[in-house]
Amino acid sequence: MVAKRTTIKDIAEAVGVSTALVSFALNDGNKKYRVSEEMVRKIRSVAREMNYQPNSAAKSLRSGRTDTIGVILSDISNRFFADIARCIEDEASEAGITVMIGSTDENPRKFERLVDVFLNKGVDGFIIVPCEKSVHVIRRLVEAKVPVVLIDRTYADLDVSSVTLNNRKATMLAVDELYGQGFRKIRFITYHTTISNIVDRETGYVESMRKYGLEDEISVSKIKYENILENMRKLIPQVLEDGVEALIFSTNRLAIDSLVVLREIGKKVPEDVAVIAFDGSETFAFDLYYTTVSYIKQPIEKFGTEAFSVLSKLIKTGDTRDYKTVVLHPELIAQESSKKK
Amino acid sequence: MVAKRTTIKDIAEAVGVSTALVSFALNDGNKKYRVSEEMVRKIRSVAREMNYQPNSAAKSLRSGRTDTIGVILSDISNRFFADIARCIEDEASEAGITVMIGSTDENPRKFERLVDVFLNKGVDGFIIVPCEKSVHVIRRLVEAKVPVVLIDRTYADLDVSSVTLNNRKATMLAVDELYGQGFRKIRFITYHTTISNIVDRETGYVESMRKYGLEDEISVSKIKYENILENMRKLIPQVLEDGVEALIFSTNRLAIDSLVVLREIGKKVPEDVAVIAFDGSETFAFDLYYTTVSYIKQPIEKFGTEAFSVLSKLIKTGDTRDYKTVVLHPELIAQESSKKK
DNA sequence: CTGAAAGCGCTTACAG
DNA sequence: CTGAAAGCGCTTACAG
Asked: pTM of the entire structure?
């Protein structure tokens, strides 16, 4: 711990006034209690001299606010979430708010534990990427009127704020592009889950195929989200044997590992099979592939900025009934990997 | 905020005892004050029923401890640091400690501000990746006896705990490999900085070249750490014109962008030029390159686990004089990109 | 414009 | 084994 911090009392003694006055002078803000200009200056200069640092614990105890928010993500070492975390951090820092971060690894028990820990710490609110089988935790928060904003995924039947992607549109854009290029045998590759965003991506694919009268071509492959590379080594050759012409992947990871497999088995993209991935851009390093990869672009920063802005308002007004759902729009970045050759 | 939390007082009233007794029963731990077994059970069960959550602010105010640590990194959206952050988070969570995270972007002012904010929040200690021009901040912390552990980079003249890589050895391993393959014209590519780890990597390269009697072949290219891809588009062709046979990169980012440029200008790795990068493995997605990339592997998780373990001890003993410097060992993962063809 | 005092929720010597 | 009370550092109605 820092050796003997100066307190408001030390300053009061040094200046020869009451602690109350010091507090007013230092916070001022809502000029409710007027203090003479001169006194404010004096107190502030002494505070600076004595290197005064307010004690947050005491402040929180009195005010009930901590100026801290809890951010619970799937996994902070995943690029997508790390980028979002970074945006939230920047916004928060700007607003004088501190961020506590935790990763659930899609494990409901870890998730619930994190929520409790952060609740104990007295966070003013949450930004959460909910994992499977944890509606009850979110519901509990909502009922307790804790300010919460969900990102990336949400629950349609819960009155809770959220910032999500229009995931159905995302895969529709992908089908549009491939159809436009002349592909018909288009397969959607995803994994087993009930998480809303992934499910929506599948729905978008199916609906879009219908739209083009390709009911008979609708085909979805699902793997378990474990040992993805190995799973793909089995799946991808089968897919090609089926005569599939183009692949749409529901996540970045699935796409990357599949591209590796395609290279391993000597299949060319897009000559042997066309590909559309999720999430590209510099940070995702498709750069290294021999061909440019088409992908659905999510406005990553917006997840962070929007979520923080919605949460701030919830905290400020204290009215958690007045929830807000923000839907972000995907963009298709069409490159070589989805071209008909 | 959570609607009306139960306090120790509520429990005391419900059970019909003093708040002191409730506190003892709930914390127990150091059985200093003995409470009857039966009473402990009763109080705990009531606490559970009433869904008691201790108020951290009050606890901190009394104890002076927050069970929170501040982790200040270069940039949480950078894979390397995100992985480290994740490890720290896991270790901390295991120990009931919460983590606050901040990114400096190598900006000394941001860095100093983060330190102050976290200090205000009353963190029990810091894990820090120090940026350039910020020795004074670290020195201030050390002098104030705040528990601090530096990672990735350190200051030789400061009595402070640290967990770093043996960076000189890292580049020596790279030279060893390339020399062994028969390469002589080996260039080290890095960027302008005074950060210890990067400087050490250069030193290791130079020393190693000397060791092999290649004084005359020692050559280092430095760019500014901005617009790296563009800078590389200029640099790499020049390097090749100089007849360089092999490249060692001081960071992962430099390597990636250079590989992209090499592909762009139609140069083959390792046929036209051999390459050794920093940091590979799945998470860094060299996978997508047409050839496997040789790289210097840092034991990333260990940065996190060791740093946390050292910090924990510092916090526990309170003796910050007893600092500890941990040096981790690099490993060379030799693959296709460094082979003589 | 300024001060005295209560109280946020908890822990911990001090009594009994 | 248990209770009464002080105090951590701050804010904020309430007086003056």
From this structure: 0.90
